[in-house]
């Protein structure tokens, strides 16, 4: 009697199984540590043209109701390229923030005064895994200047809505 050999699995099935296992090995660490990386942008062309914002002297920042935007100091935006009216900042939110809504607003630091926008409705973004670049927003002027002493309470800053 000759020994019986077990049938070989088809090569295609073996190759697909190996590719699937390899893909899962690559993707699982990424999914497990997925955080939300958002690039916020602000177009200050109107403020520059109207003499409200001087790129040489003034600054712009962003604040929000989730860390790291909810710390006591706003996070500064930088000009995207020399001579551009677009300011931007890339913010990494922790994995725990993924899937949650963020409320945020921009503020201008104008020669010692603080001009906070008051958009209606408030600016909102849902934090999704991976990278997201938001289109440049327009600053919504309220003409209510604050001195350099700003509130550190995110709810007071953003209002209870």
Can you describe this structure?
The chain is an alpha+beta fold and 161 residues long. It has one domain: Immunoglobulins (Immunoglobulin-like, Sandwich). The protein has three helices and eleven strands; from the N terminus they run H-E-H-E-E-E-E-E-E-E-E-E-E-H. The strands form two sheets. Strands 2, 3, 6, 7, 8 and 11 form a six-stranded antiparallel beta sheet that branches. Strands 1, 4, 5, 9 and 10 form a five-stranded mixed beta sheet that branches. A hairpin with a 2-residue loop joins strand 6 and strand 7. The longest helix has 22 residues. The relative contact order is 0.20.
> How much helix is in the residues?
10-25%
Q: Could you say which structural class the secondary elements and strand pairing correspond to?
A: alpha+beta
Number of domains: 1
CATH topology: Immunoglobulin-like
Rounded to an integer in angstroms, the radius of gyration calculated over CA atoms is 24 Å
The first-level CATH class is given as Mainly Beta
Poorly predicted runs are 27-32, 144-161
Classify the beta-strand content into a percent band. Answer: 25-35%
- Characterize the quaternary organization of these chains: single chain
Number of strands: 11
Q: What's the total helix number? A: 3
Largest sheet: 6 strands, antiparallel
The CATH homologous superfamily corresponds to: Immunoglobulins
What overall geometry do the principal axes of the alpha carbons give?
Answer: elongated
Element order, helices and strands? HEHEEEEEEEEEEH
What CATH architecture do you see?
Sandwich
For the record, give the distance between the C-alpha atoms at the N and C termini, rounded to a whole number: 83 Å
Mean pLDDT: 79
